[in-house]
Amino acid sequence: MTTKRIKLIVILILVAVITAGLVAWLGRSKPVKVIVKQVGYGIVQDTVANTRAGTIKACQRAGLSPSIGGQIIQLPVKEGDSVKTGQLLMELWNIDRVAQVELAQSQVKSSEASARQICVRADNAYRESQRLQKLKKQGLASEEAIDKAQSEARAQKAACHAAQANTEVSKSQLEVARAVLDRTRLTAPFDGIVAEINGEVGEFVTPSPVGIPTPPAVDLVDIACLYVSAPIDEVDAPRIRVGMPARISLDAFAKKIFDGTVSRVAPYVLDIEKQSRTVDVEVRFSNKSDASNMLPGYSADIEVILAERDHALRIPTEAVLEGNKVLLLGVDGVLQEREIKTGIGNWAWTEVTAGLAEGDEVVTSVDRTGVIAGATAEPDTQAANDD
Asked: Exposed, middle or buried, 338 (CB in 10 Å: 0-12/13-18/19+)?
């Protein structure tokens, strides 16, 4: 083999090696970008949230309707009006009942006048019997006259008592007439806002038939006191107690979180949905002014705080994989899997009791393609900053 041919072979081998290296370099897998968070200390809470949207409700709300049917003759309020306790909301035709009340009032006055007249006579008869008693001592009055005067005094006294009793009967009849008249008038049982009126002046209203609900004549709502009622899964409900702190969030106030307190845990399970049985939990606003711009019917969510650690080693909950494992970005750029022990936690933070130390970097973007143990990775600083 000539020298020239040997050189050619060497050159071909070098070209092949360089080509193979170039192909390997170009075909190498690029590092996957991951978001990492440092393990640190902070507040960790164990919380329970509602399974379906809750609702803002008024502490007092009443659908009011007259107890009898009739024609509406007066509607002194309109929807949106603020009313006070006892204020007239609706009145039905009641001229006959008003007349009955006036008649009963006249009868009371007549009975009282008659009773005064009779009782004056009784007083006179008593004084007359007393005078005759004095005259008898002086021998100027007979026994027969004294007996007659005393009998008359007793009779007049009994007539006075009867007349007074008759007056009381007249007063009771007046109260009955007023009660019958009140059935034609719908008044506010508490301070509130008129939310809805079903009816107009001149229209007829009728009471709801037994077992058949109908729209109320007037829907009255007290918006001065609001609370949230939300369904909690039956599995979580036994851990909730009245007085526990809670957080309230509303779609209508997306950027605000309100403090609240559990005020009631329903003593029964709702099984409307057989596969999702729930317990109603009510939460009051800790600061009443927070609810000043809210309306009954708003959708709301609650998060009840069951336990809290003020200074716990924690990681974002999204970093925890199945089996209590996390991915760490090693100094060599390779993702490493590590098993940890956890304490309390919620959707945001999870307490770490073993397996990690402060300053370790865990991967939070575990749902990205290619993020698995053993993969080459590099921090995604842009996404971390945006987050």
From this structure: middle
User: From CA 54, how far away is CA 248, in angstroms rounded?
Assistant: 10
Q: What are the residues whose beta carbons fall under 8 Å from the beta carbon of 358, sequence distance 6 or more?
A: 38, 39, 40, 41, 313
Q: Distance between CA 345 and CA 359 in Å, rounded?
A: 20
Cα dist from 155 to 119, 145, 164, 276, whole Å: 11, 15, 14, 80
Tell the residue number behind the tokens 């006892």, with chain if given.
86
Residue 203 to residues 63, 68, 166, 265, Cα–Cα distance (Å): 19, 14, 41, 43
- Note the pLDDT of residue 71: 94
Query: Over the stretch 133-146, which tens digit does the pLDDT of each residue have?
Result: 887 777 777 888 87
Considering the chain, what percentage of its residues have pLDDT values greater than 90?
Answer: 55
State the average pLDDT for the chain. Answer: 87
Pairing of strands 204-205, 377-379: unpaired
Q: Within the chain, how many helices (H) and strands (E) appear?
A: 4, 21
